[in-house]
Specification:
about 290 residues, globular, Rossmann fold, 8 strands, alpha/beta, disordered N terminus, eight-stranded mixed beta sheet
Amino acid sequence: MKKTTILLSAAILLLISCAKQAKIEKGYIPVSDGGQIYYESQGEGTPVILLHGHTLDLRMWDPQMKALLDAGYRVIRPEMRGYGHSSKQQAGVQFTHLDDMMTVMDSLHLDKAHVVGLSMGSFVASEMVAMHPDRLLTATLASGNIRNMPGPSTPFDSLELARKDSVIAQNLEKGIDKWKEEWIEKLVGGGGSNREAIRVSITEQVNGWDGWQLVNREMRNYYGYEAWDTLKTRCPELPVLILSGENEGKGKNPMLKYLPNSKQVIIPDCGHMSNMEKPEEFTQLMLENIERAK
C-alpha cells in the first residue's frame, strides 16, 4: 500500500510538472495598417524572444525550447508579418519588421528582453541592437546582420522597381513550388554531416509558407543604412554573440567593430540552419551569452 501511494504521488507530481511545462499562451497582437502578429509564449521569468528566418516560422526554434524553459526563462516566439499564422503582407503597405517586433514587446509589457535571431530573424534582431539597445539584455545574432540597403525613408527608383519586377517575372515562370523545392535543397544541402536530420522540418515549414513575397513587390521592411548609421553612433555595450555555420564561409561580421562587448563564433560542420543542425552547440553558446547579462 505504501509503495502504491509513493508511486501514485510521483505520477501526480509528474503530471503537474508536465502540465506546467505544456502551458502555452497564444495570441495575436495588432500592428500598423491592420496587421496581426501571431505569437506563442511559454514559461516564466526573464523573457527571451526568438525570431525566425525567411520562409520559416516559430517551429524552427523547437530544438531550443526545452533548454530555455528548464533554465527558467519565458520564451516568446512571434511570427513576422507575412509568415506563419501572422497576417499577410499587402502590396503598397509600408511597415518594418523591427517596428512590428517593438509593438510586440510593448503589447506584452516587456521592458527588456534577450533576443535571438537567425537569418531574417537576425536582420531584425540586429536592427533592435542598433536602434533599441535599451530594450535588450543580450542579443544572439546567427547568420545575418544589418542589411546593406536603403530604409523606408528612401523612395524606390525606376531601376529598383524594374529589378523587382524582373525577379517576380522569373519566379512566376519558375513557379512557386519549384522555387520552394530549390530553396529547401539550398537550406538543407548546404549543411554539414547532420543536414538530413533537418529536412523534414524545413520542408514542412517552407511548404507551409504562402510565397507571397516571391510574386509581389515588397516594401522596405528593414531600416538598413539608417540602422547602420545609428549603430556606428551608439556602439551599444550589451553582450552580443554573433554565430554562423562553418559551411557558410561568412567571415568576420562587420558589426563587431561597433559592438564593444561582442564576439563571433563559427559552429563547425554545419550550414545556415545552425540552431537545427547543431542544436546542442547552438543552445549552449546562446545560453552562455544570455548568462552574461547576470
